[in-house]
């Protein structure tokens, strides 16, 4: 029983980290993988989703609906940002980083000014289950399922839907897609909106487990960037396995040495991975199958 | 003046070195430019005579940051590698200065040694990070992400060093609250050390350092090394084909940038006698980017002027409404990137140069 208990504990820890990495990096990976834009305002889209979710939930909306509202609002904000700013910077990737950072500064400080330094959140729903004398949060188990569902949903969307085909065509050969009658400008806008909505979804899903502060987005930053760097440009071949590997490293190190070493382990992994596999996991995997 | 054959060789070498103060990689040349530069320096040198000690200490505070900005200018503007993590080297050197001075004390000019050691530590750390990044051939946006992760992880690490077990010799790291109580820079002098508290003496020391670093960077950037850096920024593949080791040049440029950030960090710690983990946080990391982007990253003069202007503006803003300062910073970044991608100061300098040209012809 003690063995089962510790195995379950390890699995829970691993699954929890894995879910966090997948959910928090999905939006970033879509925007980077599809458009080559590093979105430093990623954390602020997460914050936007979380704030909207919390407000909607406290206004009486059931939590799943509130989370969807949060994602939707973040997505709309994302499309607006794309139209106003990002659109002008597609041929200058470094400048798009700077611009999104500017947006992030404005958003964090703006929210602090308008809404104050903290906001009332929503409690973690669903309670906890008891396994071998230790209690585990049921909501976090739901989050793990959400992470897997998210990966599956994105796979279907990008590989088995009309939107996915057109989006991938636009990314690979913009001129050709344009010549075939695709409104490429609209596709870029929609893809960026999708990325922002996924970030909002991350914020919504984690809103019940976190304190609502304007800087909450930055807690997601390091982990999601690390996952995208290790994974490379492709979200399915890269980010998902990267999240699994990083979760294993982080959960292991956290269990044995504590939170800090988990984070340092992540950093060391990243530095080693970029030295050995410059294209990230997806570049390496695709290179070997080619 | 008699011609001495034995020192013509070194003299011509020196002349060649100084002729590199002007060149294709830096704006501003000719007697007009240097006259204006000398005038500005003269005004800066006379400033403590007309201002009170507090204002001079404050001006010294501005000068401290210019080193980090110039270093970022070299890395980002000239070598084309956007680093978000200059604050990592800043913070590391700041902590190094604190730890070394608290342990060694201030006698015999040891604080100067501590300053040099901190710069070396920061520069070496930058070289190591640069080795992994550039020899891993990661490019473009990824450099920004990796450097940002480095500085954020360092912040997290320093923030949790609260307990009494986190000490290096006599120096307690003190976690989130940061280190304090390290001595300021002290110059050994006949009849008693000169302790450089914020005020005119420190101001003059920093002003001298800024002039040396600025002129040194001008020479470096117009040398073959600087030309190769600019060529790498424009087209790394072609530079590689011409037989240069692109990775080595980028790594060295990154090391130089890191050392400059480290100089800022050590000086900052010596100036205020404290250093906190938040100096490596996200907001702090954004500031050098703002200065350099707004001023103009592709010219060291514009970077220097832009940094001072933005810093002064930022402080004025903080007096009137500190909460809006960051919003304005963000808006400034957006406007610069969208409307004047070369930077505002570079735009103004190009305009001035064109007016001069027109009046000449």
From TrEMBL, chain A:
Keywords: Amino-acid transport, Cell membrane, Membrane, Transmembrane, Transmembrane helix, Transport. The chain crosses the membrane at residues 18-41, 61-86, 98-118, 138-158, 187-206, 226-249, 256-277. CDD domains: TM_PBP1_LivH_like. Pfam families: BPD_transp_2 (PF02653). GO terms for cellular component: plasma membrane. It comes from the Bacteria. It is a multi-pass membrane protein. GO terms for molecular function: transmembrane transporter activity. It is found in: Cell membrane. One of its GO terms (biological process) is amino acid transport. Belongs to the binding-protein-dependent transport system permease family. LivHM subfamily. This is ABC transporter permease. It comes from Puniceibacterium antarcticum.
TrEMBL record, chain B:
Coiled coil: none annotated. It is a multi-pass membrane protein. It is found in: Cell membrane. One of its GO terms (cellular component) is plasma membrane. GO terms for molecular function: branched-chain amino acid transmembrane transporter activity. It comes from the Bacteria. The keyword Lyase does not apply. InterPro entries: ABC_transp_permease, LivM-like. The keyword Cell membrane applies. This is ABC transporter permease. It comes from Puniceibacterium antarcticum.
